[in-house]
Amino acid sequence: MNVHFVVHEAFESPGAYETWVRERGYEASYSHVHAFDALPESVENIDLLVVLGGPQSPATTKEECPHFDAAAECDLILRAINANKAVIGVCLGSQLLGEALGAAHGHSPEKEIGKFPILLTEAGRANANVAHFGEVLEVGHWHNDMPGLTPDAKILAYSEGCPRQIVEYGELVYGFQCHMEFTAEVVEKLIAASGEELDAAVGRRFVQQPGELRGNDYEEMNLKLFGFLDGLVMQYQQQGNG
């Protein structure tokens, strides 16, 4: 299995996804677009494409952020889907995934930063890859926006602050608005890069400040993520891939 990560910023690292890749003995490759790495020209050697988060939105232009090309990333995502690869979008990545499939992203009802519960929908409870999350699971969040929905999309989980936390776009294609990959190290990088954002959000319902963020335990959600990824890989391989 080769897992390819699209990394938008140095402080938005793959976190627990990398731990899973390492523990399973898989291969990892990267497009560090913040360092102006090129996106893959071909998806042939990619089994799982993971497009990570970032402070951008799908509407961010190259003039506003020279290292970010939303159209090129949407093209990569669509090529991977059409080649029957497994695809996961995280936060910004989930919004780009929806955009690639023709569903415009939207603004979340609430800004969420921290660790808060998500709740599985009926579709989520019926999905073999996420049913083990249980009806309620506390996970990481750091967002203002949320992914768009295609006609065939299924919302698998929501939170009190955001109605689209996990979206299934296809059998091998998932968008995670939430951040189940957070680790203490990842969160520390985000805190260091987000001082002004956190200061401006003091008092918001679903925003934790650095002391609370550092006090959260992210291990359980990481293990639940590993279970999801193992199930996704099994599906992918059952289709004669990998």
Can I get a quick summary?
The protein is built from 8 helices and 9 strands. It has 242 residues and is α/β, with parallel strands linked by helices.
Can you tell me about this structure?
With 242 residues, the protein is α/β, with parallel strands linked by helices. It has a single domain (2-238), classed as Class I glutamine amidotransferase (GATase) domain (Rossmann fold), CATH 3.40.50.880. It has helices spanning 16-24, 70-82, 92-100, 122-125, 184-193, 195-200, 210-215, 219-238, and strands at 2-7, 27-32, 48-51, 86-90, 106-120, 136-146, 154-158, 166-170, 173-176. Strands 2-1-3-4-9-8-7-5-6 form a 9-stranded mixed sheet, with helices on both faces. It is globular, with a radius of gyration of 16 Å.
